[in-house]
Amino acid sequence: MMNIPYLQILYVEFLRNRAIQFEIVIRANEVIKN
User: Fold this and answer.
1) Which domain of life is it from (predicted)?
2) How much is the pTM?
3) pLDDT, mean over the chain
């Protein structure tokens, strides 16, 4: 049961979504500063 590609895919998608959110926050902060 340890070899589950499905969970790996979910985890990768989760990390990708987090990275996108982080990038949006950074760009929003830059816009606010300017």
Assistant:
1) Bacteria
2) 0.58
3) 91
